[in-house]
Amino acid sequence: MNAQMLIFYLFATILLFAAVRVVTARNPVHSALYLVLSFFTAAALWIMLQAEFLAIVLVLVYVGAVMVLFLFVVMMLDINYDTLREGFWSNLPFALTVAILMAAEMVVVLAGRDFWANGSGSVPTLHGPGYSNTKELGRLIYTEYVYPFEIASVILLVAIVAAIALTLRRRKDTKFQDPAAQIAVRRNDRLRIIPVAADTKLMKKPEDAPQSEQTS
Questions:
Q1: How do residues 106-116 score in pLDDT, each as one tens digit?
Q2: Average pLDDT score over residue span 6-11
Q3: What is the pTM of this model?
Q4: CA–CA dist 13, 9 (Å, integer)
Q5: Right CATH number for 1-79 from 1.10.3720.10, 1.20.120.1200, 3.40.30.10, 3.40.50.300?
Q6: Rounded to the nearest 10 degrees, how much is the dihedral formed by the CA atoms of 88, 105, 4, 59?
Q7: CA atoms of 160 and 149, how far apart (whole Å)
Q8: Axis crossing angle, helix 67-76 with helix 28-48, rounded to the nearest 10
Q9: 48-90: pLDDT as tens digits
Q10: Where are the chain's structural domains?
Q11: Contacts within 8 Å (CB) and 24+ apart, 135-144
Q12: What are all long-range contacts of 115-124, with beta carbons under 8 Å and residues at least 24 apart?
């Protein structure tokens, strides 16, 4: 076992530990921080696989933007931790079933002969100085994997629209202005003159008051 394999197993162990702590941590802030650690470790593994572009995108997009948003929302909201823990044991059987299915799929893929025969399971070969994995990634996405890429894009778009539709709630007490109604307004709609009879007692001057009132 060479040094590269030792580094790979070290990063893989840290990644598995961080992924488990994301689920089992009692504090949501700690879970988000463990998720950041898992992203950094996955980026290190991608660098070892000569996928520098994917590693940089993972750090910049997920760690630099998405996780900052997660931490901001978690720390700003008043989260009741006891309520979050109530559904943990009830959802555990379903979560274990999904985890077992995912592990079985990975075993089937790795144990297949086609996986190793096509070179997917072999160690990546070293490329020349002029090689660009960004260019190669773009070529594969828009040529061989264009249909899966488009299907994944549509699925993500549907998920975004569904999330917005589920969280959209119209409040009846919300006040808003209609610009079209403001432009079409007339003078009679905003101003109404009401004739009021004048009160002669209040309009009298002090010198016009009776002599008894002035002496008093």
A1: 888 777 666 55
A2: 89
A3: 0.57
A4: 6
A5: 1.20.120.1200
A6: -50
A7: 17
A8: 170
A9: 888 888 898 888 888 888 888 888 877 777 666 666 666 667 7
A10: 1-79, 89-122, 132-166
A11: 137/51, 137/53, 137/54
A12: 124/49, 124/50
Residue whose token pair is 């109404």 = 192
Residue 85: CB partners within 8 Å, gap ≥ 6? Answer: 26
CA angle 167, 21, 107 (to 5 degrees): 95
**CA 39, CA 62: separation in Å to the nearest integer?**
8
